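Wed. Picked up where I left off yesterday with Pectinesterase inhibitor domain-containing protein. The coffee machine is broken again, so keeping this brief.
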Amino acid sequence: MVSNMSPFVSVFVIFLFASTSYAISGSEVKSICSQTRNPSFCLRLLMSNPNPNASLVDLTQYTINTARAKVTNTIKLINDLIAHGNSNAKSHYKLCLEHFGSDGALGDIDYTQEMLKKGDYQGVNVAASAVSTDIEDCISGDSPSDPPFHDPSDLPKNAAVIESVLDVILVLSKLLRH
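Structure written out below (tokens, as returned):
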């Protein structure tokens, strides 16, 4: 079978395939993590991937799975806080549950997954950014004029961890686009 592809297109396709399909080395992981806000967190996260032959796509998948698990655990925490909080706290946590639930962060994580499966790496970036917005709306309120809720629970810490995972997804999605 004769191909009508120009040599330039052939080389580009091979480069694109290679950059997303080959295993990422430890030095490449360090380079990736140096682009995040918390490189040590990123290194711990990506080096905990059990697949030693992970490609950029595999690392992104692993990181999305991690984000999903952290969001799911945070939803469980929020439900517990609702069950045991005072009325002011319950009101805040119910709003947070909306921001973390299937119409919020959890749904946006699922959409991030869908975009990765489609190879839409810009879509991965946009969807991961939406998750960050969902989390920020829970922690800081829907609008800048909302008074901050003093939250002594573990929710702000959980949210910060999820934000760090999302930061890694954002960097990976940018690398996948190039």
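Quick read: The CA atoms of residues 139 and 156 lie 7 Å apart.
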